[in-house]
Amino acid sequence: MIKLAILLHDGLEETEAIATIDILRRAKITVEMVAVHDLLIKGSHQINFMAEKTFDQIQIDDYDGLIIPGGGVVEHLLTKINIIDLIKAFYQKDKVIAAICAAPQLLGKAGIVDHKKITHFPTCDKFLDHAKIDLTRPAITDGKIITGQSIGTVIPFALEIVKYFLGETAKKQLESEMVVKSS
Asked: Going by fewer Cβ within 10 Å, which terminus of the chain is more open, N or C?
């Protein structure tokens, strides 16, 4: 059974978190909602929801990967050593790390995207000087790093995670079930 943790924080882009969770759960991937602080998450657009466990309860060996949604609050998260250390720990244990929007900057600060192909929100490029940035693609996988560009690319981002764990056929089946169309 595949089990991922999604790191939730006040001020996140709600759709990046909720849509990713929804799509992965549709694919029968277990996703645990982990709060950086309190279980009640207050999104950037005043949508509140509850996490299932707190940051202190994470046991890295229980998970196959970590997902980090973005939002303006990432600027604040860049100062949190415990989050950077968590990202490094997942990476050192050879786990998948997925980040969307502004969150790839956290991966950059953790030093895990040097020479990796990534995408991110166009103006959020701190700590990404040594990454191979491609802003023409909605989502990119390079090794165990998966990145997405923004709220507008959350479906391709989540489907990229599905593809990584379950393969192209499962991704295509889910696209069909959800009636995902490319423009």
From this structure: C
> Which residue do the tokens 């466990």 mark?
53
| Cβ contacts of 160 within 8 Å, gap of 6 or more | 98, 139, 140, 141, 146, 148, 171
Place of tokens 């991110």: 120
Tokens for 130, please give them.
């040594």
Determine contact, residues 113/128, Cβ cutoff 8 Å.
Answer: yes
CA distance 115 to 128: 10
Contact predicate 68/106, CB 8 Å: yes
Which pair of tokens denotes residue 181?
A: 């169309």
Q: What are 107-126's pLDDT values in tens digits?
A: 999 999 999 999 999 999 99
Q: Which residues pair with 8 in a beta bridge?
A: 35
Strands 145-148 and 139-142 turn out to be: antiparallel
Q: Are 30 and 98 in contact (CB under 8 A)?
A: no
From 12, 46, 44, 17, select the one nearest 33 (Cα to Cα): 17
pLDDT value at residue 14: 97
Closest CA to 26 of 183, 181, 180, 182: 180
